[in-house]
Amino acid sequence: MIEKERIKKIIEILRKLYPEAETALKHQNPFQLLIATILSAQCTDERVNMVTPVLFKKYPKPESLAQAGAGEIENIIRSTGFYKNKALSIKESSKTIVDKFGGEVPKTMEELLTLRGVARKTANVVLGSAFGITSGIVVDTHVKRLSFRLGFTKETNPEKIESDLTKIIDKKDWIWFSHGLIWHGRKICMARKPFCSECKLNEACPKLF
Prior knowledge:
Elements: H1 3-17, H2 30-39, H3 45-58, H4 62-67, H5 70-77, H6 83-101, H7 109-112, H8 120-131, H9 141-149, H10 158-168, H11 174-187
């Protein structure tokens, strides 16, 4: 099976397995998704989803979070880890959104990257899941692991992995593709003990692990 056919096969299987794959971070608007994604660094989505309802009830808008005390934010998000840095990123990003973007989350990669605590992964999540804008492919730990195991890349740097993926995955699939891999990584292709015997990608997987 040549590479293009193998990739096509993997996409077809993942589409059947996870047709509705989307971000697991609960949010009601782009701002909430941005903050939730910042909190998700080195933390599970489940934990973030336990914290954000409390945070957004007290600070529902960029204006209120920009004015909030760092200590107050830290107390709410402490369980997500690295809470001091995250609190500062949340507060400063909110202030920038208010001061430079009229209180609205920007819709371009360049502008999102000016926010504290936002790198390409977070920007791609917000653009794809909040705005439906195809700017790139989200590369988190699951996408990184599966992309290597499936032979899509040999890189370890997220930006280089993203570059490799965008060359072999049709742009129309970019937003969904990362979520499909993430769901598969959580359900089947786990880091320590993947369920290869139950994996529907077996015939297309080179098993590079």
